[in-house]
Structure formats: structure tokens, C-alpha cells
Amino acid sequence: MKKPILSIAIGGCFVAVTIFLVSSFLPIIPTSAKYSISVDPVIVKDEMGTETHVAIKNTGTDALTNVVIYYGGTAKPDTIPVLNPGEKISVSPPEGSELDKVYITTDQGINVTKEYRSPTSANFVGNSGYGG
């Protein structure tokens, strides 16, 4: 009678330890929203002039349509007709842009306002000074 109880106790401990180890060491997969976007406007001012770009990535699980980038000022907005999940596009603000923040809208109701950031490594090495 003691042997089955001991086997059950050892088996239960083994299962508990296994569950703990699996849940601790497996990466937790985050669930993505259906519609989500990442916006990264970058501005670099140095002795060579001013370099700007706006990186836009669809971080959701569904495609975004009519992604419109408003630069402010007298600049005409850019429109991306379709941005598929995981797709990343980089655009350059046109002449007449305010260069302080960008406004992004989509048909799915996303509205994002983001200020330009200056990267910490602002000096250019050829054409790759701030990554991208």
C-alpha cells in the first residue's frame, strides 16, 4: 500500500517540476492586436545638413489600408495603399515639412502622433549613420 502512494507523490513532484521548468524557460509569445502600427520618425542634423526619414511598420496581424503620413507645414501627405503584417516602409518627408512631428492615420481607425527623435550616434559614416 505504501509503494503506490510513494509512486504517486514522486510522479506528482516530477510533473510539478516539469511544468515549472517549461513555463520558466520557454519564451512567452505575445499576442498581437489585429491592427497595430509602429512609427519611428528620425531626424539627424549635422555639418552636412539635415537628414530625415519616417519608418512605419505594421505590427498587427491584419493588413492596414490607406496609411496616410501627414508631415505638417505645406508638405503634401504620403499615402501607403496597403501595409501588410510585418511589412516596414521608410519614407522621407518632402520639402515644406515642419520636421517636429508626424501624424499617421489608417482606414482601420489608427491615429498616431509621434515626435521626431535624434539618434545618439548622429555622425554619419557614409550613408549609414543612424541605421534603419
TrEMBL record:
<keyword id="KW-0812">Transmembrane</keyword>
<feature type="transmembrane region" description="Helical">
    <location>
        <begin position="6"/>
        <end position="29"/>
    </location>
</feature>
<keyword id="KW-1133">Transmembrane helix</keyword>
<keyword id="KW-0472">Membrane</keyword>
<protein>
    <recommendedName>
        <fullName>CARDB domain-containing protein</fullName>
    </recommendedName>
</protein>
